[in-house]
Design a protein that fits this description.
The protein has 15 helices and 14 strands. The protein has 357 residues and is α/β, with parallel strands linked by helices. Helix 1 packs antiparallel against helix 7 and helix 4 runs antiparallel to helix 14.
C-alpha cells in the first residue's frame, strides 16, 4: 500500500474512533456540540477564579506522571503542569492532577473536565484539525518501537512474525503497528488494554510476546520491571511521535499561555538560566533576552495577561527544559534516556525556542 493511501486510511480510522467515543460521551452527559462556544476565552479566568489548574496526565508512567510513595505526582508531564500553574497562579503546587487513559484524554479536555492535557500525546494533523483541540508545541520528540523478551532473540521486526502484541487502543501506536506489519508482510495478534501498566504486566507474565508503544514509554515501563535486563527495546523506530500539551481550540488566550510557558523553559536553557541562578540573573543580568525572560522588563507578561514574574516563577519551580529532562527521564535516571533529538538545536538536537520578544 502506498504512503498516501496508508495515511488516508489511518486518518479515517482515527476520525471514526474519536467520533464514536465523543458522540457517546456527549449524549451520556447531556451535552451538545455547542461546547465550542462556551469555552471561548474563559480558561485563564476560570483557572484564576478556581485557584487551581486541572491538568490531565497519564494514569501512571514512570518519568512522566506517576505518584510517589507520598502520593505526589512526579515526572516530566507532572512538572510541566506545575510550570503552567506557577506561571498563571504564582504557585506550582496549585495543580489538580487528573489521571486519564488514552481513550479518556480528549473527551476530558473537550468537556471541560481539565484545562490542559499534558499526557504523552502525539501531535498529528488529524488531531490538530478535527478534534476541536489545538496542539501547543513539542516538549518531547519520540518514535514508535517494540519491546520483547531478551530470550526471544529478536533484533528487528522481521523476527516478530506471528507474535502477540500488547498495546493501548485509541492511540497512534495501534495504527503504526498495523502499518508496520502490513508493510513488512507480517502477521501479529493484537491484545488491546487501556492501561500500559496492564500491558507491561501481560508481557512479564507471558500473555503477550511484545509491547508496542513509543520508545520513551517502553523505557519507562521497563524501568519498573523486577528484571529489566530480561527485556529489549528494538532499535528501529517506525514513526515520528512528537509529544506536546493540548488545549481546546476555541480559547486562543489560553493557547498562548501554555505555548509560551513551554517556549520559555526551552529559552531558559538556551540562555543558561536555571532554577538555582534565576534569582541572581534577574537582579544582575544586563542581557536584554534574560531580562525579558525573567520579568525584569514586564512586557512579555503583559502580552498574555500574566504577572511580570510568570516565567521566573515557572523556571524557579521546575527548572529550565534541560533540568526538567535530566531530572525525570535523563541518562542518570532509572529510565536512562540520552538527550538525542531532545537536546538544544545548538548541540545537534531539535529543541529550539521561538523568540521571546
Amino acid at each position: 500500500m502506498g504512503a498516501a493511501s496508508s495515511a488516508s486510511e489511518q486518518n479515517r480510522e482515527e476520525n471514526n474512533v474519536w467520533r464514536s467515543l465523543l458522540g457517546s460521551t456527549l449524549v451520556a452527559a447531556g451535552l451538545t456540540l455547542s461546547w465550542s462556544m462556551a469555552w471561548a476565552g474563559q480558561t485563564l479566568d476560570g483557572v484564576r477564579q478556581r485557584g487551581v489548574l486541572a491538568c490531565g496526565v497519564n494514569v501512571g508512567v514512570a518519568g512522566f506522571s506517576l505518584p510517589d510513595s507520598q502520593g505526589v505526582w512526579r515526572g516530566m508531564d507532572a512538572d510541566l503542569c506545575r510550570a503552567v500553574s506557577a506561571a498563571v497562579l504564582g504557585d506550582p503546587n496549585k495543580v489538580r492532577f487528573i489521571p486519564l487513559t488514552a481513550v479518556q484524554r480528549f473527551i476530558a479536555l473537550q468537556s471541560g473536565e481539565i484545562d490542559v492535557l499534558i499526557r504523552q500525546t502525539t501531535l498529528t494533523m488529524v488531531r490538530d484539525t478535527n478534534l476541536g483541540l489545538r496542539m501547543v508545541g513539542v516538549n518531547l520528540y519520540d518514535g514508535h518501537g517494540f519491546m520483547v523478551r531478551r530470550d526471544a532473540n529478536v533484533s528487528d521486526i522481521r523476527g516478530m512474525d506471528g507474535m502477540t502484541i500488547c498495546m493501548s487502543p485509541g492511540t497512534t501506536n495501534e495504527l503504526v503497528t498495523q502499518d508496520a506489519f502490513r508493510a513488512a508482510n507480517l502477521r501479529f495478534a493484537p491484545v488491546l488494554q487501556e492501561r500500559m501498566q496492564d500491558n507491561a504486566q501481560a508481557l512479564q507474565a507471558g500473555r503477550c510476546d511484545a509491547i508496542a508503544t513509543d520508545a520513551t514509554q517502553l523505557a519507562a515501563l521497563r524501568s519498573q520491571f523486577g528484571r529489566p535486563n530480561d527485556y529489549v527495546i528494538l532499535e528501529a523506530r517506525f514513526s515520528k511521535e512528537p509529544y506536546g500539551p493540548v488545549v481546546r481550540r476555541d480559547d486562543q488566550e489560553w493557547f498562548d499561555v501554555v505555548r509560551w510557558v513551554l517556549n520559555g523553559l526551552i529559552e531558559a536553557e538556551e540562555l543558561g538560566v536555571t532554577s538555582t541562578n534565576a534569582e541572581q540573573m534577574r537582579a544582575t543580568s544586563s542581557d536584554p533576552a534574560v531580562r525579558r525572560l525573567l520579568g525584569a522588563v514586564p512586557d512579555l507578561g503583559q502580552a498574555i495577561k500574566l504577572q511580570p514574574s510568570w516565567l521566573y516563577d515557572a523556571i524557579r519551580a521546575v527548572g529550565n527544559y534541560g533540568e526538567l529532562y535530566d531530572r525525570t527521564i535523563g541518562p542518570n535516571t532509572p529510565i536512562g534516556l540520552p538527550r538525542g533529538a531532545n537536546d538544544l538545536w545548538t548541540r545537534g538536537g531539535l529543541m529550539y525556542a521561538w523568540p521571546l520578544r
